[in-house]
Amino acid sequence: MDIIKIIFTSIGSLAAMFCITRLIGNRQMSQMSMFDYVNGITIGSIAAEFATSLEQDFWLPLTAMAVYGLAAVAIAWGTCKSMALRRFFNGRPTVLFEHGKLYEQNLAAARMDINEFLTQCRAAGYFDLTQLESAVLETNGQVSFLPLSERRPVTPQDLGLAVQPEKPCVCVVMDGRVLAGSVNIDMIAAAAPNSLNQLRVQSEGYDLCVIDLADLAARKEEENTTMSLLRGECEAFCQRGAALSGLDVYVASNVPKGSGVSSSAAFEVLIGVILNDCFMTKKVSPIEIAQIGQWAENVYFGKPCGLMDQMASSVGNIITIDFADPAHPDVEPVQFKP
After folding, report:
1. Inter-residue contact 39 to 72 (CB < 8 Å)
2. Rounded to an integer, what is the distance from CA 251 to the centroid of its chain?
3. How does DSSP classify residue 252?
4. By C-alpha distance, which of 258, 255, 276, 284 is closest to 267?
5. Which CA distances in Å does 305 have to 61, 216, 293, 318?
6. Long-range contacts of 269-276 (CB under 8 A, 24+ apart)
7. Cα–Cα distances in Å, from 9 out to 42, 65, 270?
8. pLDDT truncated to tens, each residue of the chain (338 aa)?
9. Of the candidates 182, 184, 189, 183, which has an alpha carbon nearest to the alpha carbon of residue 253?
10. What is the largest distance, in Å, between two alpha-carbon atoms of the chain?
11. 110, 113, 122, 237: which has the highest count of C-beta atoms within 10 A?
């Protein structure tokens, strides 16, 4: 029975500490005042006694923890509102070094010797005191350094450069799966063999694209063109054992170009499906067709795109994708109940 009681009181003390910590607020050790530090140790000690006390009423240590927690909140609120309380509880910053002079009296008051001060300087990257304008011991125990103006890092403002404003990055997907779906617009094509050993693709409303199947190396001058995508996909299928031969393809589409509905991904998947159907003895999967399209766009077209658009176009319908392993993405269809 004692063990069971200790288990439950331990869980209770952890819950109480969690609530009190959330009430007090989150601060790193380096940001704590001396009062915060001592108060935290005291609350932890009471929580340990709360968890292991078998005879004492658990309300007594719980009340003590609550009192310490509320006292910390009250003092934090008071120091935010009153400069006098802030100086009383947190103290004042102490100047240790300024204008080439080391204040030994302030070092002694801060219980810091010269060797410790020099260690702090070296840890901050200052091995020569002549590089410093001042050093201040903050109320949280950290030493702040102000280098001489001629020793400070150069900024774009110093160089007269205009820089673009930056914004923090936002993780769209951190844990979980991407939800992607195809839409009710498409590309269709008709294909027929030719004896020229060329892939000739005519898209409705666009110029004829012709590539020689005997020369599938990437070309710098073709980057950002349809030719680069065709050449890249042919090379990818050759690497997988396709015996390519001349082919004429005519494409009609109602996918608007440049409208954000993945027209390039749809085109890559369409060409991949044609090459897979016409020249592969061992057919590749829709997932691999999407990867081929991405590879052609990355390596030949010169665009560092992802894989989601190609995957949605190739697999079709509504799917979820886990890209934890980019080489082997986990794709699952979304099942809807009738």
Report:
1. yes
2. 39
3. E
4. 255
5. 59, 21, 10, 21
6. 269/293, 269/310, 269/313, 269/314, 270/187, 270/189, 271/201, 271/229, 271/230, 271/233, 272/233, 272/237, 272/314, 273/314, 274/189, 274/191, 274/247, 274/249, 275/233, 275/234, 275/237, 275/242, 275/244, 276/237
7. 18, 14, 64
8. 566 766 666 676 667 666 766 665 555 444 556 666 666 777 777 777 666 665 566 677 777 777 777 777 777 788 788 888 777 777 788 899 999 899 989 888 888 888 989 998 999 889 988 889 999 998 877 899 999 988 888 888 888 888 888 877 766 655 678 888 877 788 899 999 999 999 999 999 889 999 999 999 999 999 999 999 999 999 999 999 999 999 999 999 888 776 666 788 889 999 999 999 999 999 999 999 999 999 999 999 999 888 888 998 899 888 888 888 888 889 888 887 76
9. 189
10. 96
11. 237
Task: Give the pair of three-digit tokens for residue 163.
Answer: 């820089």
| Tokens read off for 13 | 């003390």
Give the number of other Cβ atoms within 10 Å of residue 19's Cβ. Answer: 13
- Looking only at the bridges linking them, the beta strands covering 101-102 and 94-98 are antiparallel
Separation CA 269–CA 236 (nearest Å): 13
Residue 31 identity: Q
Single out the residue of 13, 6, 20, 14 nearest to residue 59, CA to CA: 13
Cβ atoms 112, 138 nearer than 8 A: no
User: By the 8 A CB rule, do 267 and 204 touch?
Assistant: no
Q: Give long-range contacts, CB 8 A cutoff, 24+ apart: 1-4.
A: 2/54
